[in-house]
Amino acid sequence: MAARRKMRTKNKPDQLLSEAEVDSVQNTSLVEQRREQICDAALELFLEKGFASTTIRDICARSGVNQASIYDYVANKHDILRRLLNRVWFRPDVPTLAERLENHGELSFQENVANYFHDNWTKKRQGILLSYRSVPHLQEDDRKAMRSREKAIARDLAAQLEEMTKLPADDPALEIMAQVIIYLAAFGPMRDWLLKTNNETTLRVVSAGVAAMVDQLAKENKT
Q1: CA 204 to each of CA 78, 86, 178, 200, 215: distance values in angstroms, whole numbers, following the listed order
Q2: Residue 63: pLDDT above 80?
Q3: Which CATH code is given to the segment(s) 28-88?
C-alpha cells in the first residue's frame, strides 16, 4: 500500500506543556546543567517509585542539587514533570506516523508504520512509561494540553487514512483505526517485560497487522 505524499489537514501537534519561568540565576549554562541533573534524577525516581511517592528531597539526593537551591532552577515537582514530559514524550526527533507518511512517500505504508513503532518503542520508551504513569497526577491545564495534542495527532493520522482508504471523512472507522495505531505505539514499552520489542520479528508482525487492517478497510469500502 503506497503512502500519501501530501497532508490534507494541518493539526500540527507542536504545543508543549507550560514550564515555569524561574530566572533567579543569571548563568544560563549553569541553569541548564542543574535542570538536566534535576530532570535526569526525577525521571529515574518517577519511574522507580512513582510521581506521588517521590519527594523533592529524594530528587535532590539523587541529583546532587542542594535542597536549598533547587527552586532556583525549577518551581516545584509539577514543573519538573512538565519539563520531563516536554523532553521525553514530546520528542521532536520522533515524528508522528502522519508526518512520516507525508515526508516519506517513497516508503510503503507498512515500512513507515514499522519505523514509527521502532522509534516509539526505543527512543520514546521512557516518555511513554512516564506519561502513562503520571497522567493521574497531572494538573488540569496540563491534562487538557496533553489531550489536545493527542487529538491533533489522531486527526492528522485519520486524514491520512481517509486518503488511503477512500472512506468518507465522517466514517468513524478512520478515527478508530488511528487510535488503534497510536495505542500500539505504546504497546512495546508497556509490555516489554514479556516481549523484546526491539526484535525485528515483532516489528514485522505488528506493522504487517496494521497494514492488513487498513487494507481491509479500503477493500470493504470498494464493495
Answers
A1: 38, 30, 19, 6, 16
A2: yes
A3: 1.10.10.60
| Residue % of the chain over a pLDDT of 90 | 80
- CA–CA gap between residue 130 and residue 125 (Å, rounded): 9
Residue listed under C-alpha cell 523484546: 196
**Domain ranges in the chain?**
28-88, 97-222
Give the pLDDT band of residue 196 (cuts 50, 70, 90): low
The model carries a pTM of: 0.87
